[in-house]
Amino acid sequence: MQNGPHPEPWLRGHFEDLPAIHLAVLHALELTAENIDRWRVGLTTDDFHSQPFGLPSLSFHLRHISRSLDRLLTYAEGNQLTASQLSALKGESSPDGSVKSILDEFHASLENARARIRGFASTSLELPRSVGRRQLPTTVGGLLVHIADHTQRHAGQIVTTAKLLAALRK
Question: Residue 132 sits in a domain of what CATH number?
Answer without folding.
Answer: 1.20.120.450
